[in-house]
Amino acid sequence: MDEEFRSLTDRLGDEAGGSEDFRRLLATEDAEELALVLVERERPLWAREIAAFRLGCGGDRRAFETLVLLLNHRDPERCVSAAHALRLLGDPRTPRAAAALATNSLRTGYALYPVRLLAALRAPESVPALVSTLHRLLTPGEPHWRVALACVEGLGSLEDSRARPVLEAALPHPRLGAAAEEALRQLPEG
Questions:
Q1: Whole-angstrom Cα distance, residue 163 to residue 71?
Q2: Residues lower than pLDDT 50 in the chain
Q3: How far apart, in whole angstroms, are the C-alpha atoms of residue 81 and residue 84?
Q4: Could you point out which of 1, 30, 75, 114 has its C-alpha 20 to 30 Å from the C-alpha of 129?
């Protein structure tokens, strides 16, 4: 059992109240049983999360839609689990979905994990989406500085010179300046 799975089971155990269904979903090796949980009516969120996580980590693309919904959830722990499973899933739709979540101005408060996932994926969509999101978050009075910081750090790790202008624009921001300076050092010259 890897650390992400252990964290998921610890967190959802309380939510599930230690039910028999909870134990069965953790133990089953039947992908069809797990996939059925994703489409059955009136299944609790914890059951869908377990099924999607297990299917996603196993490379079963039927988990994709549920994992994307969980990536944009208000509960950060659900987002972390979903991002982990999406990385392992390797679905080619993941970068586009993460970019759509990261750049959605109506959901900026929930964009931290999509932003981090984009940086980890290193996909063609990553740099444009992070540049766009960071540029929008550099406006005065913007409250989502943690998302902006994740954009700065992600752009540094991606080492793409297209990020230079927006990283330079982030330098004067008190909460972003040091990270922007470090990210700029990571970019190739020219």
A1: 25
A2: none
A3: 5
A4: 75
Between CA 59 and CA 100 the distance in angstroms is 22
Q: How many CA atoms, within 13 angstroms, populate the side-chain half-sphere of residue 123?
A: 21
**Residue that the structure tokens 């063609």 belong to:** 124
Contact 79, 73 (CB under 8 A): yes
Question: Which residues, in sequence order, are CB contacts of 44 under 8 Å at separation 6+?
Answer: 15, 16
Query: Which residues have C-beta within 8 Å of that of residue 69, sequence separation ≥ 6?
Result: none
pLDDT in tens, 23-63: 999 999 999 999 999 999 999 999 999 999 999 999 999 99
Contact assessment for residue 171 and residue 179, using Cβ atoms and an 8 Å cutoff: no
CA-to-CA distance for 164 and 171, rounded, in angstroms? 11
Residue 92, φ and ψ in degrees, nearest 5: -65, -15
Quote the distance between the C-alpha of residue 41 and its chain's center. Answer: 26
CA proximity to 8, closest of 73, 88, 77: 77
Relative orientation angle of helices 76-89 and 94-103, to the nearest 10 degrees: 150
